[in-house]
């Protein structure tokens, strides 16, 4: 469709995601492991169970996004 | 990234009841999983009247129109092309010429381009999206385009010799009713060959998103839509009046660089979720979390991630007296009790 709509705008922005995400591979793996661990053991996954790991991932991601924007 | 980024990105195509069987094997006990209370597609088979209303058909039409209007729309056709060719294969398996065929939800005509005009002489192609119909690929079969909803077929009874459908029936609300209509428009001894996604399709995406939302927000909403289980398909076809059923399942695994590519491609296929109970917003934190979980739990060695599509193929015939029937009761000349004796080879007396 010509012109921009919500779908095409969001797609534009999502295009950056893989690049930024790749810069935080370490943090992502740590967070992923934390969540994955809760699925195999006896404990149940709860809200904010991996909050610390996610914070690290988000900080890294936001930093990467800022760097990119400059 | 602004918050608008994550909005609407995920109307992913998908499934949910199926994922509970194997993908989530290990975490079926997590509290989130018990929250599942959405309608199951399978239920429509057992209910008296097919009054299920799971999907927003208007939304599906808009998604399909949007996808068809993409400049680079062809690059999202890989799955439809593959499944279309496999459906065409099944058409070739039947040694017949079909004077008049119908393709339901055919979109850009992914089946007919693999079929020669010696097999199908004339084709009607229906779709809900007028934009997809306009982009129909030119095959060698003379084709009439009809803008029609799969749920309401505008054809007379006993019209078609063959009805095909590829990757469109999984968005139908009243699947038993739709199959019944297909049966009606077929001539006696006509055949229906269909393919739809089902089973555990996209279980990786479903589970990643669920885990991410549980961890981030304390609960989850379905982003991947409900699917028909393969075990229900036989009953559905039988109830619709088909005989000599064949149902089989094919697993197609596509490797993607990351979760965003999975979702972008699904959107490009027009396969975004359109269930009524979907949440239109996927928080950006949840996307980030899901990307990490997807990669960690399902990722390949080389950093890519797989997405599984389970394609259910079904073949059913409209009854006709010429078709093979079970023998009459009491016409057996050998007792089943003697079966064990028959199967024994003659050289058993060597010891």
TrEMBL record, chain A:
GO cellular component: mitochondrion
Biological process per Gene Ontology, one example term: mitochondrial respiratory chain complex I assembly
InterPro entries assigned: NDUFAF8
Protein name, entry field: NADH:ubiquinone oxidoreductase complex assembly factor 8
Species this chain originates from: Zoarces viviparus
Taxonomic classification: Eukaryota, Metazoa, Chordata, Craniata, Vertebrata
Automatic annotation (TrEMBL), chain B:
Comp. bias intervals (Polar residues): 341-351
Keywords, ordered alphabetically: Methyltransferase, Mitochondrion, Oxidoreductase, Transferase, Transit peptide
Domain Methyltransferase type: 102-193
Protein's GO biological process: methylation; mitochondrial respiratory chain complex I assembly
Keyword Mitochondrion listed: yes
Pfam families: Methyltransf_11
UniProt GO cellular component terms: mitochondrion
Coarse class of the protein's main subcellular location: mitochondrion
Name under which the protein is recorded: Arginine-hydroxylase NDUFAF5, mitochondrial
Species the sequence originates in: Zoarces viviparus
């Amino acid at each position: 469709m010509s012109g921009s709509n919500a779908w095409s705008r969001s797609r534009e922005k999502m295009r950056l995601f893989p690049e930024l995400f790749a810069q935080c591979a370490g943090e992502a793996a740590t967070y992923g492991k934390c969540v994955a661990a809760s699925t195999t053991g006896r404990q149940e996954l709860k809200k904010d169970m991996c909050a610390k790991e996610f914070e690290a991932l988000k900080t890294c991601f936001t930093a990467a996004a800022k760097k990119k924007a400059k | 990234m602004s918050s608008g980024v994550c909005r609407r990105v995920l109307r992913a195509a998908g499934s949910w009841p199926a994922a509970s069987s194997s993908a989530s094997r290990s975490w079926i006990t997590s509290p989130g999983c018990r929250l599942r209370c959405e309608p199951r597609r399978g239920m429509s088979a057992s209910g008296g009247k097919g009054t299920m209303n799971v999907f927003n058909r208007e939304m599906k039409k808009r998604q399909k129109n949007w996808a068809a209007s993409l400049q680079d729309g062809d690059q999202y056709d890989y799955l439809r092309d593959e499944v279309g060719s496999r459906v065409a294969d099944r058409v070739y398996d039947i040694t017949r010429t079909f004077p008049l065929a119908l393709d339901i939800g055919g979109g850009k005509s992914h089946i007919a381009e693999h079929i020669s005009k010696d097999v199908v002489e004339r084709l009607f192609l229906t779709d809900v999206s007028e934009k997809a119909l306009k982009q129909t690929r030119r095959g060698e079969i003379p084709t009439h385009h009809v803008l029609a909803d799969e749920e309401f077929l505008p054809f007379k009874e006993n019209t078609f010799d063959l009805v095909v459908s590829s990757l469109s029936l999984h968005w139908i609300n009243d699947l038993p009713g739709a199959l019944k209509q297909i049966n009606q428009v077929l001539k006696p001894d006509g055949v229906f060959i269909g393919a739809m996604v089902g089973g555990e399709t996209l279980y990786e995406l479903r589970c990643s998103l669920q885990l991410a939302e549980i961890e981030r927000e304390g609960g989850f909403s379905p982003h991947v839509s409900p699917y028909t289980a393969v075990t229900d398909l036989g009953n559905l076809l039988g109830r619709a009046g088909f005989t000599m059923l064949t149902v089989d399942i094919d697993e197609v695994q596509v490797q993607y660089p990351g979760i965003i590519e999975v979702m972008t491609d699904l959107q490009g296929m027009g396969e975004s979720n359109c269930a009524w109970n979907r949440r239109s917003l996927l928080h950006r934190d949840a996307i980030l979390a899901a990307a990490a979980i997807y990669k960690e739990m399902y990722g390949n060695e080389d950093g890519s991630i797989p997405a599984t599509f389970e394609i259910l193929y079904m073949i059913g015939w409209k009854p006709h007296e010429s078709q093979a029937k079970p023998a009459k009761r009491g016409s057996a000349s050998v007792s089943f009790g003697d079966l064990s004796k028959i199967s024994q080879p003659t050289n058993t007396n060597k010891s």
